[in-house]
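I hope you will forgive my troubling you with a question about protein structure. The matter concerns a single protein, recorded as an amino acid sequence and a row of backbone structure tokens. Please examine both parts with care and let me know of anything in them that strikes you as inconsistent. Thank you for your consideration; the sequence and its tokens are set out here:
***
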Amino acid sequence: MLKRILYAALLAIAIIIAAVAWNTLRLTSRQIEVKPAPPLALDRDAVAARLAGALKFRTISDAASGDTNAEEFTRMQAYLQQAFPRLHATLKREMVGHSMLFTWQGSDPQARPVMWLAHQDVVPVAPGTESSWQQPPFDGVVKDGFVWGRGSWDDKGSLVAQMEAVETLLASGYQPRATLYLGFGADEEVGGRRGAVEIARLLKSRGIKMDYILDEGMLVTQGIMSGVSKPVALIGVAEKGYASVNLSVETAPGHSSMPPQKTAIGMMSAALTDLERKQMPVELTGVAREMFDSIAPEMQGMNRVVLSNLWLFAPVVKKQLEQSAGTNAVLRTTTALTVIHAGNKDNVLPGRADAVVNFRVRPGDTVGGVMEHVKQTVNNDAVHAELDAGSSDPSRVSPVDSAQYTLINRTIREVFSDAAVAPGIVIGATDARHYKDVSDHVYRFSPVRAGPEDLSRFHGTNERIGINNYLEAVSFYVQLARNGK
């Protein structure tokens, strides 16, 4: 009997090893085979200088007022008109507040139009960090192979690259078959309510349905994804939702010399500790699973073996991935304790404690599900939970098995020929989410190369883009237009 059990166990192990080996060996690349796009003849210095010029304007948006820094937006728009004369002479420009909507009429009125998005506004420089910048953030300096300045990456780099691409195409006599719209919001960094929301409403009122929409989003990462030696270009097919939950506890205030068994601060602390300890589950499904399935064939060693056999290794993979802040954010609805207020004197027990917990909601979860999770986890009637008015569910997931996704995928492979392409989830918020009624195919990709040392530059210090990379970005938009026929 013991021998039979041993033989059965060995046979089971042998079968598992064989299955793992077979799955690993038969794994083939999902990458589209293409010829690299021919180099685009661009005046390197002039192209870099035009981007640098747009970085000199302090187009910092304000949630409270659409007229904050209005003069800076007006001055930048005048600069862009001077820098790209063909575009402004050919395309129709409409102003939606301080946002801009350009229309490049296509040759085929029956072809469904397409739309590229970018935004004019930038985030402010954190007070006290100005001296840490290698180049002043609003001087638009070209030096050491980079264009330096706030917005060079997010998102004037994309905006000016799109205009550069259109200007280049116009100079060559090109006209698109399908009408091309350019939507340049002026308040993306504070929610897009005056820009993207209003542009989308305008387009919807005209009955315009886009074949696809492309906004900023995921990047061409280098050395960030473990186990992959080549760059990985991720196309955002969805973005996470946003839910802030306001927590409050009210008790009778009192003297610190006679504290009760339960205080407002104590109950709030327990609630926050429970929420941070018991987070919503990690899910290796949907877009996240599709992303790893696309990347697995490009991996080497044990990473390839493990990701080729998620039927066996999924629990180990999930445990490993949730240790990293970046991959953890892709796989679950995240919980972040962001604000807390209580007390104003060291010998007084406060009668109220308030806190805010911010959740970024993964596709597959909902804001309603987040609220249910909060109530079950806190499990204390004294802690009141209220959903903030600015909360929203995750975006719809745009299909990867579509001609529109394939078009973007192919264009990336032609321009960034060393990169593997995969779908992904944008963990932040973009203007793209406001266009759900304008297109069923909304994608998010920024043609920006980024290594581990670059991630802190996003909304941080020493924002910059390599000139060679910026030329790639211009080439990407030119190629995307041409591929659209």
Summary: The chain has a mean pLDDT of 94.
